[in-house]
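Changelog note: in this version the structure field was regenerated for every chain. One regenerated record is shown below for reference.
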Amino acid sequence: MKPVCFENKKLKLIDQRKLPLDLIINEYVDYRAVCIAIKDMVVRGAPAIGVTAAYGTYLAALEFEKESPEIFFTNMEKALVEFSKTRPTAVNLFWAINKMRFLLSSSKNLPNSHITILIKEKADEIFNEDVLLCKQIGDNGATLIKNESCILTHCNAGALATSDYGTALGVVRSAFKQGKVKMVYADETRPFLQGSRLTAYELHHDEIPVTVITDNMAGYFMQQKMIDCVVTGADRIAANGDTANKIGTYSLAVLAKFHNIPFYIAAPYSTFDFNIATGDDITIEYRNPKEVSHISGIQVVPNGVNILNPAFDVTPSELITAIITERDIITPPYVDNIRKYGSHL
């Protein structure tokens, strides 16, 4: 289940706004339309956004490669800036943009056509690496899952949020293959319903037992001892382990701490932002209030009522039991151990 695919000079994206009822694949040849697709959440999930921006950069290179070198590089920088303005919280986007910017700056003496080929190769590399990393994250995380576990997850950190396999759901998939998973509880994840629409869709497709609950039911099921651990993905991890993820993650971490339930974050190295000390430095995206006031086009909030719609929140590191990566399982003290992790990248 690959949400991002590049074939015949066309970027193909599963329109995740239409799932689970309709599987629609949109095709793109204009990088500007790709920017809109990211902003409008046709594609979402931090790793998938990064991969999409990488291929979108290639589309820009195809458009401008016949221009003079000066115009080519000027327009490529404009394209990268446009991608950087699409979603401010997920660091994987900026990680992919920086990779492309470095490639461009180190290739100024090459013909435009050659640079375009290098950009495509780099985008393919980012895609393929993400698939491999997700499987490694899954296998590492599965070592933390006990037999007959009931796992709670939030939002969608599965194949649809990555190149394939998933981060948090990568852990679920690997643990399920080992016979360890009894049930996965998927928070519906208001307001965009990524849990009920996407996570449930993925797991049901793979015949992994899944039960959807509303976001405000999580504490009840923890209290009833029906949850053995919580596994979520991440959109940005600070140098001290503070983690930004879909809104509602912080609440789950607080509940898990109170009920002595392990709370795990699963993410690749590209999700770490070693340039920020704490979660206080993470920019939180606020989205259109209509995502809250309407469900499937039906208005559920009175006209004129004020609405706030932050897309993410930050979970302090002291609430996180471990951070599962492709290389290590990072445990406290996070400042020291994340620094060690970063030094090996």
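Spot check on this record: The chain has two domains: 4-134, 140-343. The first strand starts at residue 4 and ends at 7.
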